[in-house]
Amino acid sequence: MHTFFQTPIEQFPIGNLSLSEHARPLEWNREPRAWISPHDWQAALDDHADTIIDAHGAILAWRGGRPERCRDLIARHSFHLTHPWDLLKANEAFLAQMKESTIEGQVHSSAVIEGNLQLGEGSRILPGVFIEGNVVIGAHCKVGPNCYIRGATSIGNHCHIGQAVEIKNSLILDHTSIGHLSYVGDSVIGRKVNFGAGTITSNFRHDGANHRSMIDGCLVDTGRRKFGAIIGDHVHTGIHTAIYPGRKIAAHASTRPGDIVQRDLPSPSSI
Question: Out of 39, 83, 158, 180, which one is annotated catalytic?
Fold first, then answer.
């Protein structure tokens, strides 16, 4: 994932908390790239397990100084973060645990919230914004007016979500601006990204099949019927950019007004 994001995967924010900051039981250690769901942590404690493993037998977490394979728990909801789209799965699982709202910023009286919202200090939700499902928005953000934000979505700090933008089931990192009249669905958007007005990510194949993504010259099944784009840090898109489903745009790349992104775009330094 280094071609896309400067953030190491073990520090990548899930629900605006870096992976290493997510709670884990005392005396337990976790593989740096493993996402462990709260359900599996609790199951391991209830079962007095020594290790949590995935379906292939790979160790995800262990009790004590080093793994002791005495009593394994096979994880039902946990996995290694191997590909960028795995971040979506982890974010979905984490936000599904939200049970209440925490509002530290300002929500306009005409905004509607149907679900749970965590809103950071200094952030503003402007008139006409509709938030549906569980959503996390960081500090010092501006959202709206007239936006539709759908769970499970995490938006970092110092972000701007412009007029008439729709965001669904996505991760958006710090200092990113999604320009007005844009759509972001089932996507991971890096830091300091700027979407020109009318930038659209497509997230559904006409045949309804799972999306595949090119990894090291091979098409890999993502296991996702809905999958938008992976957008690296510092990417800028021109107005009216259209991005095919499952495409990846590497860090510092850019598009021109009216571009159609049919294939992955490499970093300018690699061209």
Answer: 180
pLDDT digits (tens, 9 = 90+) for 173-186: 999 999 999 999 99
Is residue 68 within 8 Å of residue 51, measured between CB atoms? Answer: yes
Q: Express each pLDDT in 126-182 by its tens digit.
A: 999 999 999 999 999 999 999 999 989 999 999 999 999 999 999 999 999 999 999
Determine, yes or no, domain membership for 70: yes
Can you say how many angstroms the Cα of residue 239 is from the centroid of all Cα atoms in its chain? 23
Does the residue 166 lie in any domain?
Answer: yes
Residue pair 154/13 in contact (Cβ under 8 Å)? The answer is yes
Task: Residue 69: give the domain boundaries.
Answer: 10-81
Question: Same domain, yes or no, for 149 and 221?
Answer: yes
Distance CA 34, CA 75 (A): 11
Q: CA 160, CA 95: separation in Å to the nearest integer?
A: 21
Amino acid identity for residue 131 in this structure:
I
List, in sequence order, the alpha helices (H) in the chain: 38-46, 86-95
Specify the amino acid at residue 136: V
Return the residue matching tokens 């958007």. Answer: 189
Q: Determine whether 234 is an active site residue.
A: no
What is the DSSP secondary-structure string of 183-252? EEES-EE-TT-EEPTT-EE--B-TT-PPPEEEETTEEEE-S-SB--EEE-TT-EE-TT-EE-TTEEE-TT
For residues 43 and 114, membership in a common domain is answered with: no
Helix (H/G/I), strand (E/B), else coil: 17 = strand
